[in-house]
Design goal:
CATH superfamily of the largest domain: Response regulator
Largest sheet: 6 strands, parallel
Number of helices: 11
Oligomer: single chain
Distance between the termini: 47 Å
Length: about 230
């Protein structure tokens, strides 16, 4: 049997110690290959377009060009960056930056102090076409999203509520149950435990929710929920 090609990873961070640490963590998994490093967003965009990695680990706060602008500029190159996925690396005091990274097109975010196995798992998750939200940041992210969208929701409450209710009406009762935990950033295994379901069943429910809402991943479910004023 032919061994699968490794997942190619580019690391973009302005701190050399962080870059080296991330490289060591990623390099500990034989299915991952670190193909390059860059010290700021501008260099990261250039490296990504040249190296065509599968995954870019993108720091948020960097000199020259921050991770938000770099992510947006990279993903503007639709042909060259079509298969590239960005994972934002952030800290506890930058929830607003995390929201802006998601809006720029990142497939998720992870705290820099997350365990190494969480980073490896996140890379595999995003490479498989899914998204990743660090559960420990969900509450603060929700608060930030709610604050940022309070004015917009108030200005157009009626139409937003109608559209939100229309979308929710497409779901079965069990899918609504799954949705409530999904918007909190719970993983499939966590949802399965809370609803006493098999994990494969939860995965099917999540897939149907994404299809019915025409959303690409669970990150955008969270964004949809708090832009529309959805609450548990």
């Amino acid at each position: 049997m032919t061994e699968a090609a490794p997942i190619r990873v580019l690391i973009v961070d302005d701190q050399s110690l962080v870059r080296e640490g991330l490289a060591l963590i990623a390099g500990s998994d034989r299915s991952l290959e670190v193909v390059g490093q860059a010290e700021d967003g501008r260099a990261g965009v250039a490296a990504a377009l040249q190296l065509r990695p599968d995954i870019v680990l993108m720091d948020v706060r960097m000199p020259v060009m921050d991770g938000i602008e770099a992510t947006a500029k990279l993903l503007e190159h639709e042909a060259e960056a079509e298969e590239i996925r960005v994972i934002a690396l952030t800290t506890y005091d930058s929830e607003d930056f995390a929201v802006r990274m998601l809006a720029a097109g990142a497939s998720g975010f992870l705290l820099k102090d997350a365990p190494g196995e969480d980073l490896v798992r996140a890379i595999h998750t995003v490479h498989a076409g899914n998204a990743i939200i660090d559960p420990s940041m969900t509450k603060t992210l929700v608060n930030r999203l709610t604050q940022n969208n309070a004015t917009d929701v108030a200005e157009d409450t009626h139409s937003r509520v109608e559209e939100r209710d229309r979308m929710i009406s497409m779901l079965t009762a069990r899918e609504r149950d799954v949705l409530e935990y999904l918007v909190q950033g719970d993983s499939n295994s966590q949802i399965a435990a809370k609803l006493f379901l098999a994990e494969v069943t939860v995965k099917s429910h999540v897939g149907r929710i994404l299809d019915k809402f025409n959303l690409p991943d669970r990150v955008h479910v969270v964004i949809w929920a708090y832009e529309s004023g959805f609450q548990r």
